[in-house]
Amino acid sequence: MNPTCRGCGHALKHKAKYCARCGTPAADARVCPSCGIANDAGDNFCYACGEALVGGSPPPAPRRDSARVRWLAAGILLGAVLSGAGALGWWLLDR
Ligand SMILES: [Zn+2]
Ligand SMILES: [Zn+2]
Known about the structure:
Elements: E1 30-31, E2 38-39, H1 63-94
Antiparallel strand pairs: 1-2
The structure holds zinc ion (2 copies).
Residues 32, 34-35, 37, 46, 48-49, 51 line the site of one zinc ion.
């Protein structure tokens, strides 16, 4: 038995994501919150734009990588400050 449209009651075709008569997404379809495309019920991400779909688990956040990048940026900043201070000190002593 085929599901029927929530909007107009029209019998949906097998695996249909939209009603062919009124365009309402099928009840088991996952409508993308970003672009409005209807994806399959088991899909976690929009096939059109990659947006995480409602009910899907978000991708794991790369916390360790971002922390490493932060430390790297802090190290670069510290190095820049130290070399700048060294250059300033050398410049002051040279006068
Ligand atoms: Zn319909
Ligand atoms: Zn989308």
